[in-house]
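Notes, Module 5: Reading structure tokens.

Key idea: the token line is not a picture. It is a compressed description, and you learn to read it the same way you learned to read a sequence, by spotting repeated patterns. We will look at two proteins. The first is printed below with its tokens.
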Amino acid sequence: MEPHELTLVIFARDFDQTIDFYERRLELRRIESWHRDDSQGARFAAGESAVVEVFGAPGPGIDERTRVAGVSLGLNVDSVDAWYATLRSRGIECTNPEDQWWGGRMFYCFDPNGLPVMISETKRT
């Protein structure tokens, strides 16, 4: 038995800001979106088999149990430095890119909900 995709679900404090962050600033491709009386949301492609799904209030299951500490979104990219320059030019606060012991390079930015987004690249030899 194997899952078909990995979905990271984000319960947005500010739905419009969160959608803007993932769609316009990170440039993830929107797969679908909906707006109903009981729920609003959008799904974004994050690689070949991963999805970032954003729910806005009221949304299903939004309560204190959905507040998970110690979670971050990780995006592996071709050029950390290019991503860093692009995100900074869009006004997104980021940590400085740093080389890592495992041979890669990475930095963090934060979505409007405070979720850490780790942007990393693995050096290919």
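Here is the second protein, with the sequence above and the tokens below, as before.
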Amino acid sequence: MFKKIIHIVLWLIAIAIIAVSFGFSVKESNKLVCLEVKVDVMDSSKVRFIINNDIKNWVRLYHREIYGHQISPGNIRKIEEGIQKLQAVEDVSVFANFYNNGVKNSQVLVVRIKQREPVFRVMSSGRTYYVDRFGKYINWSAYFTPRVMIVGGNFSAKYAAERLLPLVEYINKDSFWSSQIDQIYVNSNGELSMIPRVGDQLIYFGVPEAYQIKFRNLKALYSEGFKSGGWSRYSSINAKFLNQIVCTKKQ
């Protein structure tokens, strides 16, 4: 019984210490004066739409008042909300850094960013932009040209997000098709043509519906019908219909 009481007392003391420490930390954070902004783009080795200095310049332009002043929760919230609206930003967190390599009150405001990752590139109606996994678009950037599927033609951003995104994600997740399909073109009727990496024939795919069945039929043709390289004899492959594939020989 005595040991149980001691155990409870120790727990209460530990909780009290944590509460006091937390209260002290909050109090100290309210006194922290911002002298520097540090930007951490977490996925910069893979995606490079965002440059650290651009975010620092954005903070200087729109929130110059934080420099040399105490960092408040209101300042942090406004900066987070502003950066979150930037097209290439998927997620952002902003916080005051108490310690830097063990040194207290380093007076740094940290902006930590996760970028949007492009799934494919759109080249339509004189515009070029990228679409991410959420269907959000990212403007073309001179900083970074990712190696992703290119889709050309004349179609809306809504068509790209709702009709093309599921199909391109299907291609990207399939080891065979991700290495085979190089580009996609959308005509005025919303029908797709695909350019393969192997061979010079054009694949007429039709509208982006029932694409799992169409790709299954095409894979059977490539793995069985073209296993000896017979694709070089054809100028086009028509996979619009679910029950047949029509190949047109070169003239």
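Summary for the second protein:
- Residues 19-26 have pLDDT under 50 and may be disordered.
- The first strand starts at residue 36 and ends at 41.
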